[in-house]
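Give me structure tokens for this 437-residue protein.
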Amino acid sequence: MIPVAGPSRSAARRRGTVAAVFLLPALLLLGALVVQPIGYSVYRSLFDRSGRSFAGLDNYATLFSDGAVRTALANTAVWVVAAPAAATALGLVFAVLTERVRWGTAFKLLVFMPMAISMLAAGIIFRLVYEQDPGRGVANAVWVGVHDTFAESSAFPRARPRPDAPLAPDGSGGYVTRAPVRAGVPVALPLVGVRPEELPEGTAPARAAGAEPGRVTGVVWQDFARGGGGERGAVDAREPGYAGMRVEAVRDGRVVASARARPDGTFVLPAAADGALLRLPAENFREPYAGVDWLGPALVTPSVIGAYVWMWAGFAMVLIGAGLAAVPRELLEAARVDGANEWQVFRRVTVPLLAPVLAVVLVTLVINVMKIFDLVFVIAPGAVQDDANVLALQLYRTSFGTDADQGLGSAIAVLLLVLVVPVMWFNIRRMRKEAAR
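Here you go.
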């Protein structure tokens, strides 16, 4: 007698068939978009540049001998350590703080808004933010403004005497008179090299200093008039004075008197200056502070990481905020009743309870930064892209650059996959443990 399948077996078979029908399109797409490219990349990495000659593991050996790839590996390691940690930490701080302010929802919206911007657009924004010129780059405009608040730059950075002037370099960036000065004998200190539009506000036409008994008088001015004319070494009404120029009287290496030039360039020193040398100190000629070279070789990687954190801190904040909303409030209140301050509650109660959420955010960001490409490509100028290089960018440059080598590029892609797999495995294992609880 042949056994007849029961209703339960038939129903299970039907459910399996229906599941297979629904899964088939997804499996086909997965195979076409993931499995097949991975398999072809592994296959192509075993061939040379042309793709016709079998190279074995030569491309993989080249990976660890090529300087550009080693730099990309080092920078990728910096990204993996710094960017996810910074974004997660900021997200945690924002999530905790927004629970304590009345306008927390608006703040969350502002922090999350960069997530709506594409990597390309964010790269363009931060390329402008990091411009070296303080007149264009926001970062340097702020930095220079703060610096100049405490150390104001000079208005005469390019001023200098002519070779036949009565001034000589003092060895420290300033200038000193060639001979001592005498009270009652006016001193002329001519300089050139400052554009009229760069002179400080309030500058007036230069005026020859008059003699004053018992005092050292003089004038420091621009010994050049636009359009020419005038006599060299003599004050002309069309020539501007150097308003605010500091003048010091130096005797035996010690400053015995000092003064600031008036708007017309004239100055007066007391009788202590008699017989001393007059010095125009280096502070008069200090170059304006140009800010920080954010996109230079030393800072380009931290600068690009800063742009990434700006974008992804909102993502971390939203996920951590959702986890924070599920934290039992009675546990926090119990800790406060037991005498814990807010920092202790945060460190010993809130953070441990949020550990699963923090792990999700951290692992997600680690996987994300391993394939970072857009920000580095757009923000880093061509001259420093080698210094900011990461694996995904090196993959693009090797495979599609001017000297394309798709065999080596495929090897880089396989290396990138090998680096991502352990992180994905850790994430899957962690999710299974969470589901088993």
